[in-house]
Write a structure and sequence with these properties.
alpha/beta; Alkaline Phosphatase, subunit A; 10 helices
Amino acid sequence: MRVLTALLILVMVACTPDGEPEARPDPRGTPDPRPNVLLIVTDDQRADTLDVMPATRRWFGKQGTTYSNAFATTPLCCPSRASIFTGMYAHNHGVLKNQDSHDLRTRSTLQYYFGEETDYTTALVGKYLNSWSVEEDPPQFDKWVSYSGRYYGKPFNVNGRVTPTNEYSTYHIAKQAQRLLKSFERPDERPWFLYVAPVAPHAPFHISPKYRAAPVPPWDRNPAIDERNLGDKPGFVPRPFDLDKTEILRRKQLRTLMSVDDLVRKVMQTLTRLGEADDTLAIFTSDQGLLWGEHGFFAKRLPYTQSIAAPLMIRWPGRVDPGVTNDSLVANIDLAPTIMEVAGLIPDRRYPVDGRSLLADEERDELYIEQLENWRVRLPDWRSLRTKEFQYVEYYARNGRIMAREYYDLTTDPWQLRNLLGDRDPSNDPEIEALSARIASYSECSGASCFAP
């Protein structure tokens, strides 16, 4: 009787008033089961290139939410990836150009918080940050298969051991990601965070043999590509160049994305076979876009839409609406706070997060975007304010003074063909002083003040 009474007391203590067992809290107080987190980041992928990626659209678009107004807050590889890891603007995390990878404070990153505050397993497959040597281990990851980029002939650092491979890098990354996913499920039920980063579709656009002759959608050149009157643009904007060459590069870039689509399919199929697909918050995005001749550029680093816009899709069955397009203004700085929320992570007060969780109800009315240290490529630094209705840009000389401005009414001019501050018609000019004051406020923002300074 004493034994039965003791067992009865234990059962009563371990159950809720409804008789259901209580969820086991994790180290940060978030009840289990916490989701796994899969973050796939491509390189220089425009937001309008998903037509060649049917598996990605099926897994993420039909089964998740697509964000049609997603932007990189700095349209350059290394600063953007640092913003993805930290949820911070470049002026706060300090990685202003591609050579600044070692300036990233690793204690401000997602992978650090996962390791310090939870029992998540963390892993990286693919590109970490620009100018990061393959001999250097990517910090704060438990496991990694990292490399410095390129499609062929580059060795990988496998948990501290540099290993050569002749395999097409996108497919090698896919295999290694599948291997890691299987290893996560062997020893225990710990959740995991996996960062997957192929170099595609970044230049030099080497295509796998499988897709070298693959058909691509015809190029419906948008009006910004055929723009000939650039007199309203700042003086540094080049004059139109060879669009036939651009078309060749476009086809190559799209064909490299077909292999990325294979990667996504293989990874998601592996998750499904392991029974983890529905328990995983999966995110697909890119570090920024790329201009295909819009306004005379084949480049990034500039504030025009095709440079700053990036694909963004999120899949989490039962928590994220499937088959939905969300037109909220969102950015790469919102990914870290989203992941932190679902994993129960709390950022260090010394490194406040500038973005907001994509799962929150509050939406921003405007987004601040910046590109600093641009002079090294003979372009000016700039800061921009973007809403759904307009975009305002300030360009700066080396002494910090404003050297040029642009303002586009995105409602009537979505292709940014008419700079209202450069058309010599003062009757349509906006109130520059108010916009410039908001730019200045954003340029010094940190944490909560970056949402609505």
